[in-house]
Every structure is written in C-alpha cells, then in structure tokens.
Amino acid sequence: MATPSSIPTRRRLAIAGAFFGMAFIPAGTATAADYFAGKTIRIVNGFPAASAYTLYAQLAAQHLGRFIPGKPNIIVSMMPGAAGLSALNYLEEVAPRDGTVLTVPTQDLASQQLLGAKGVRYDAAKLNYIGRATANVPVHMVWHTTPVRSFGDLKRYEIITGSAFSTGTQVDLPRAQNALLGTKWKVIAGFRDDSRIAMTRGETQAGVIAATLFGGQYKSWLEEGAVRVIVQYADFRHPSFPDIPTIMELAEAEDAKAVFKFLVSLATVGRAYVAPPGVPTEHVAILRRAFDAMVDDPAFKSDAEKRGADLLPMSGAELATYVVGIVRTPPDIIQKTREAIAPR
Question: Which residues contact 338 (CB under 8 A, 6 or more apart)?
Fold first, then answer.
C-alpha cells in the first residue's frame, strides 16, 4: 500500500487540490434543482381581493408549484396598499432574495418610476421577471350615438370621455392625443360613477376598457353595436381586435411615437410575475422554466378559462428586456410626456 511519503509530490498536490475544490463548491450550485423542496413560496399581492391582479396571483399559487423541482407550497399573501407599490417596495427592501417571494406587479411599474410617482422606492430594471401570463390592452370605445366612426373623426368632433381617476390611462392617453395628435377629447377626471355606465345615461360619450372585457362582461355591447372601438392603447394589436389600429400606428412624428410607446408600456407588462432584485440566477432560471411549463399546461389553461383569466404569455427574459428598454427612455421623452399629459 502506498504511504503518503511514497506518493509523488505533484500527485499529492493534485489530490489535495481536488479535495479542496470539492469542499468549496457552493451548496446552492450542487443542489439548485432541489433548492425549493420543503419551502413555501409567497406571492405577495398588493391589490384588493377582487382585482385581476389577485386572480393571476391565485392561478400561480394553484399551479406553479407543480413545475418547480421539489414541488414547494405556494400561497398568496395579501399586502394591499398604494395601488400595488407597497408590495413592490417590500420586494425591494424587505423580501428575502432567494426566490421564495414573488409578486404580480402593477402594470405601470416602469412608467411610475420614471414619472417620479410618490412612494416608488424600487428600480423596475433590477427586478427579476419570471414571466407574463397575459397582456392588458386598454381600448377606447365611443357610444353608438356619437358621429365618430374612425380615429380621424376625433380630430373633428369634441367627445366627452370620463374617468374615475385624475391620472392614469383613462386621462393620460386622451390628453396626450390632444397635445400631440390634434384630437378633441374632452376629459372629465374624477368621475364619481363608473364612466362606462355613464355612457348609457348620456353623461359621457366614451370610455376606456380592457380589451379582454369584451369577451365577457361587455360582450353584448359590441355584438349589439352599442359601442365602437376606435383605438388600442398598446404597441401591438390585441388578438380580439386585429382590425383596430394602435395609438403607435396613428402617431407619425418620432417624438410622439416615443411618448406613446412609454405611456402604453403597461399594456405589454400586463399581469406578470416578478422576484426581488439579487435573487441567484439559478433560482430565477428554475422559476422561469416552471412558468413556461405552467402556461403551456392544459390543466392551467382550463382553470384560467373557467376563472375568466385571459392568457397571452411572454417569457421572463423577453419581458425583462422590454422593461429595461422602457426604464431607459431618454429624459427628453419623459419631459415631453409630462407636458403632454398635464391637465389643460
């Protein structure tokens, strides 16, 4: 039997080096596939129980764990506040950076950050995007009694459009169109009642609605000709409205296109899943693979359909690239956006 003294020096050094290297292999690397075994993943939900964000959080809680090695338990943890900002700030400042906390972020997380919204303490470009379950494309409809048949008519007729809020898509997009495209929207902000129902009473003539709602709650309005959809607020056409132009198609000047691309970025973000910054890349990769498998799973699709949840998935890597691009919007375009959406 060879004794330590009889083993050549180079060989002894090689053996020692091999053992030394094995001793210092990061544990997470060796067991990444089983990292989530026995753990609980929390989906922190920053919105009320009846919101669409909650619906998609619940869907992931029901199905995502089946596709994660180790099959962790997944629960929804309610943290409503500041229209979803509380949950995002929690991810930025408090949540463990190990992949065990996710959220369905507010769809305008990037634009709020760049416009300096009060309470934003996160950096959207540094979050880890797991994937998007669906886009959320707002469309502008007019009541059938108006003379508007196309977008061009909005430059000839003053049309009253209402919103329950003083900021956001329902007021920002019409104001920006007035400033940059010459439309004549008359925006009534802070409308106390549902501005869509107000159309039926003749109090308003137009309203903004999610494209997906025409497949359910407002389907009869479209089928019976009660409303006409004039424009989509996205940088792509929603499958439900392949013949309706987007605001990006209608804007001709490059600076106007850039402003609208920034404003409609929320449509592309839609209902997504994100993890905090600083989560190990191997854990992010596991979650992304699980998400991709989930949205392609028949049981998940069937459950989403039963719950009335639209699906238009985007991979986490693609969504991350998109959001980073929005966060890098040039300062002069942000300034033009501020000016375009300012009340007049």
Answer: 115
